[in-house]
Amino acid sequence: MTVSSLIGPLGFLVVGQALQHVGIRVVALAIAAGFTAGWVAFSAAVRRGDSAGEQEGDPVPPGDLAPVFSSEARAD
Fold first, then answer.
1. Residue 27 in contact with residue 18, Cβ under 8 Å?
2. DSSP collapsed to 3 states, the chain
3. pTM
4. Euclidean distance between CA atoms 41 and 39, whole angstroms
């Protein structure tokens, strides 16, 4: 959230300057290409994270960390 707040105004400045020099089609294409590149990088990172877990094997469960004691119902 902080990065978005800091970089957002810079993005508006860059896009505004680019619109003056190259036009809307080139700017829209560049934005779409940037989002696509980000999606591909994120997808690769997620897939890499999944395959790393399969190679290492399943982790050993830590056991019963918070035991729940059975309670007996008494007729009073």
1. yes
2. CHHHHHHHHHHHHHHHHHHHHCCHHHHHHHHHHHHHHHHHHHHHHHHHHHHHHHHHCCCCCCCCCCCCCCCCCCCC
3. 0.53
4. 5
Q: Which two tokens stand for residue 19?
A: 């619109």
Chain centroid to CA 50: 14
Structure tokens at 15: 């896009």
pLDDT per position as a tens digit, 5-55: 888 889 889 899 999 999 999 999 999 999 999 999 999 988 887 555 555
Assigned token pair, 3: 């990065």
> What is the C-alpha to C-alpha distance for residues 27 and 19, in angstroms, rounded to an integer?
7
Closest Cα to residue 27, out of 50, 6, 11? 11
